[in-house]
Amino acid sequence: MAGATISPSLPGLVAHFADDPRAEWLVPFILTAPGLAIAVAAPLSGVLVDRTVKRRVLLAGIVLYVLAGSSGLYLDSLDAILVGRLFLGLAVGAVMTASMALIADVWEGEARQRVLGWQAASMGVGGILFIGAGGLLGQLDWREPFAVYLAPLALLPIVLKAVPAKAPRRRGEGDATDAPFPWRHALPIYAVAAAGMLTFYVIPTLIPFDVADLVGVARASAWTGAVVAAAMVASSLASTQVARLRRRLAPQAIGAISFGIVAIGYLAISTHLSILPLAVALAGIGAGLGLLMPTNNAWLLSRVPDAMRGRASGGMTMCLFLAQFSSAFVGGALVAWGGLDFVYLAMGVFATAVAGLLALWARR
Questions:
Q1: Potential cystine with 38: which of 9, 77, 321, 345 (Cβ 3.0-4.6 Å)?
Q2: Helix ranges, the chain (H)
């Protein structure tokens, strides 16, 4: 929900603030500012999660999320709304970091892998529901999509009742407060996660232009929503199967399969598919990301001391959102160099290379 929920509001925002000469270039930052703020805030949230009660960080993040996310409902200044969006990023960084660390506290082994899969699946389903709600509300007024950010208020009593205030202590577990952070374990996983997010986020930034070429500008919005939804649904379904795959395959092997599927999807799109095959290819790319995200999270947390789970989760969140923020620049540069089909070909080649490296790693 962090950024895309209010995308239907952008034209209305520009029109409402037409008297402000900065509106044309400042309004797009309202959409992208949370991603950059998340990347900055997540490591700080990780340190905080490790030094205090994780549930408190989660609750504070939800409250800040509601206040900052809904700020467009009542603020009437571009600068103030932009500040609100930056605070929204801080809130998302806290929520994502605390929730991943809490999952690692409460579950272990295959159960943890399964729950992380359902977490990734819920992110996809939530994206479809809330981005769709933002689109419907955006037809009423530019302020209305900001109301979607009030929804997490319903989570507060559930968190208070169901989430443990303290992590359960397991046999053989210690705080390991003096141990160094396991960078040798974490950095390759962060790199794999960033590569996956970078390749996936070419879809929402560039696919709308491809769809417009195929079906015309008048029908492009509806068809873009449909094909992106296909990718998100496939991602959610694939995430629920990760625990089953993990019984038989190492995380490097699952990663190789994930990037292999993504590579096939992008190489197919580079041949300039018609709209229905395009939707199938995008669903394949979504499925690849759906396998990758929970696999990476469980792989990371499997060898991180319990006292460092917050920092590990914060580092993962930072890498994901830096890659997401960077995808628009990478895609734009490749488009300028060779056009849309060249971007998809480049992403396919890149995913193939990553898949090959992970396959070699798995074999070792």
A1: 321
A2: 10-16, 23-51, 54-69, 78-106, 109-138, 155-162, 183-200, 202-215, 217-239, 242-246, 251-269, 275-301, 309-338, 340-363
